[in-house]
Design a protein that fits this description.
alpha+beta; Aminopeptidase; 7-stranded mixed sheet; 5 helices; binds coenzyme A
Length: about 150
């Protein structure tokens, strides 16, 4: 298994980026300034994007694994990699996500704790209704993790 930072043509991974954030104009707000990590196990399996938010805080903006490889530990491996990569560079990593129990569990299992919520984020910032596994996303839930 190998994890690389992708610096050129980040949009080549738009298919995976859209799994995590289905509106391309929202991805465009962070992709250029973010660092994109790609996990390969033979082929590409997962990606994530991390941005600098301040001298001490970075934010996981996106993480996705190709659907046929969900539940095989690739997402968690990628998270463990970026935790060590950013250890010493920032003190806190944030992530904002929809209010869905399975995704909150995924982050909590990887050491994040719920921090705060931005009400109506998905209503105010997206041009269409976002449904994740049958749940309409309304508020953005932020979780944080010490690095
Ligand atoms: C979230 C995601 C990246 C996890 O990747 P992964 O490679 O499957 O990660 P892991 O195998 O390390 O962990 C899987 C865990 O995710 C949880 N999970 C996340 N999304 C889930 C979903 N839609 N349905 C069921 N379980 C889900 C499971 O609880 C599972 O935990 P378990 O191993 O204890 O059963 C992957 O589900 C994904 O690509 N989802 C679509 C994109 C997305 O929603 N990204 C997050 C946006 S904030």
């Amino acid at each position: 298994m190998e994890i690389k930072i992708v610096r050129e043509n980040k949009k080549q991974h738009l298919d995976l980026l859209l799994l995590a954030d289905e509106q391309e104009s929202m991805i465009d707000k962070y992709l250029d300034r973010g660092e994109l990590f790609a996990l390969f196990d033979g082929d590409l399996k997962s990606i994530c994007v991390v941005t600098r938010e301040s001298d001490t805080v970075c934010e996981l903006k996106s993480i996705a694994t190709y659907e046929q490889f969900h539940g095989q530990g690739y997402g968690s491996k990628l998270l463990q990699h970026i935790f060590s990569y950013y250890h010493g560079k920032y003190s806190t990593m944030l992530v904002g996500t929809g209010d869905c129990p399975w995704i909150l569990r995924f982050y909590e299992k990887n050491g994040f704790q719920i921090s705060h919520r931005v009400e109506n984020f998905f209503i105010d910032n997206y041009d269409h209704v976002i449904i994740d596994n049958g749940i309409q996303l309304v508020d953005m839930v932020y979780l944080s993790r010490d690095l």
